[in-house]
Design a protein that fits this description.
single chain; alpha/beta; 14-stranded mixed sheet; 25% strand
Length: 284
């Protein structure tokens, strides 16, 4: 398959039509380049807050409510684009209502019309304390025509047991949409994504928001780039970096990935971290 992962700049829109035009152009460009799977970043949907006006967009909780109100419409747009272009799309995540609270939800749209989602599992302090975002429903496995896929949203990628739980179900491709304000945040998530690829012998795909949009107060500064990582093992680059973009440069990063290489590495690896049995540690 050919994977396209994004370094996505946020916009402040005058209308829904302007948002739809931007998303349609991004999807069209990746599809024209031959991509089968498109990965947008965590909280990229926060640019929808601009449609509620500058007052709402300039307030964190006002932004959360405004975006949650538009997520169903945005999902329908992405689903239609997935069908039209014959691609799988991991939509940029955003707040969604769950009971009496909000969760951080990333929708996964298939070209056959299937819609499913993954909620973030572990909240950062700013999500929990400032945004009022709660952990959502548990981990899911996505069986697709491309292979078995799992999603670890940003901070979730930094927790090894989440990646291991997905790998033990046969997941071969981990999608890691991220939103990081500073360079150290980008590297925390990148290191997490690469570590999950190493220890679980899988491919990890990281996307990022990039640039500044001061009118979107909740996500006004962002640092990152796209990256596609594998285990540093036979059939993969010795660095584990299959492809990566340029820091803070908007656009798609592409790579051809054959999951048969993952199956080969898991069957006959140089080292076998994904097959190592868990052992109870003993202390003296």
């Amino acid at each position: 398959m050919k994977i396209a992962t994004s370094a996505y700049p946020l916009s402040f829109f005058p209308s829904w039509a302007a948002y739809a035009a931007k998303i349609s152009a991004w999807v069209s460009d990746a599809a024209a380049a031959g991509a089968d799977l498109l990965v947008f970043p965590e909280y990229g949907a926060m640019e929808l807050a601009s449609l509620a006006g500058e007052t709402a967009a300039g307030d964190v909780k006002g932004s959360v409510i405004a975006v949650a109100d538009l997520m169903d419409k945005a999902v329908d747009l992405h689903a239609e684009l997935a069908r039209t272009h014959g691609v799988h799309i991991l939509m940029a995540s955003g707040p969604a209502r769950l009971g009496g609270t909000f969760v951080n939800r990333a929708w996964f749209l298939a070209p056959n019309g299937e819609k499913s989602f993954q909620d973030k599992q572990i909240m950062t302090r700013f999500e929990r304390e400032d945004w009022g975002i709660a952990p959502g429903e548990g981990l899911r496995v996505f069986d697709t025509a491309l292979g078995r896929i799992g999603i670890l949203i940003c901070y979730d990628s930094e927790f090894p047991l989440l990646g291991r739980a997905l790998a033990e179900t046969g997941v071969e491709l981990l999608l890691v949409p991220s939103c990081t304000e500073a360079l150290e945040g980008y590297w925390r998530v990148r290191i997490g994504a690469m570590a999950r690829a190493l220890e679980n012998q899988c491919v990890a795909v990281m996307s990022s928001i990039v640039g500044e949009e001061p009118r979107l107060f909740a996500v006004e500064e962002n640092t990152g780039k796209g990256g596609i990582f594998g285990p540093p093992d036979k059939g993969f680059p010795p660095t584990g970096v299959i492809a990566e973009g340029t820091l803070n440069h908007p656009g798609w990063t592409y790579a051809e990935v054959d999951l048969a290489h993952i199956r080969e590495v898991r069957a006959e690896p140089h080292s076998a971290p994904s097959r190592s049995k868990r052992k109870r540690l003993r202390f003296r």
